[in-house]
Model the fold of this input.
Amino acid sequence: EPVVAAEGEVWVVAIRYFCGADRTLAASYIGDTTLLQSLKQIHRAAPITAEIRFLRAIDCKGRTRRDVAAEAETLIRAVVNPQAATAVGGSAPEKPLDLQVAAR
Done:
């Protein structure tokens, strides 16, 4: 929230994880999952590839935290699941930078 109060920019990043060609939740760090549980899941999983997509910045000037979060979510959903985003009237962000990192 400090970046919103300071009227700065939030840079949006979408991250997906793969084992081979299949998406995996092995690297998930969400909900009640602890950091240790997440690290154990990653260690037990087959080699994981992280797809990191740097999207555009969101200007926070005159915006609320909820507005910024909603826009970031829309941008990420458009990259992670473009068919669903288009179906609800969204659009994919212009030319994200793709970076893939393999972890073993």
DSSP finds four helices and four strands in the chain. Confidence is low (pLDDT under 50) at residues 86-99. The two ends are 35 Å apart (CA to CA). Residues 65-80 form the longest helix (16 residues).
